[in-house]
Amino acid sequence: IADKIYTHKVRAVIREIACNAHDAHIEAGNPDPFDVHLPTSLEPWFSVRDYGVGLSDDDVRFIFCNTFKSTKQDTNSQIGCLGLGSKSPFCLVDSFTVKSWYGGMERTYSCYRDEQRKPNVALLTEVASDEPNGIEVSLSIEGRVHDFENDSVKVFQYWSYTPNINNNRVVKSIDDARQRYKFKGEDFGL
To answer: What's the whole-model pTM score?
Structure first.
């Protein structure tokens, strides 16, 4: 389904994974921004690392294997609720990595599509950790550096804050875009 529902696939992956990180911070009561790694020619991957509540092993398997099932259906304080966003990387790649820091453990998973193209999760590593709870979703991206840079600006220019992004030029472009779209009035505006 991820192959067919997104017109702008790179933008969709950035938006969906970032919105999940934002929601995780809301759930955890964490006001700090999450981390975004945009691909570069030397580091060709995209990742988002949040510092939210993290996910148990069962939660990772539920969230990343099931479509149209969400942990956010009973709240209005979070963005998602259809259970599709976590699978959005499948519109660009056949597999991606999820790390979860939860309950003093760090678990690394491979999320991949099987022969029928259904999502599956395989636990790769499990080690004790004193890192803060949270999730990191990462996917290898070759040759799409500019797509991720441009679409990051298109996504984050409408947010009230900017995540911690590894590319200062993109951060400046986001700030510049916000300045162009600011509305002000006597009773409204920023």
So the answer is: 0.85
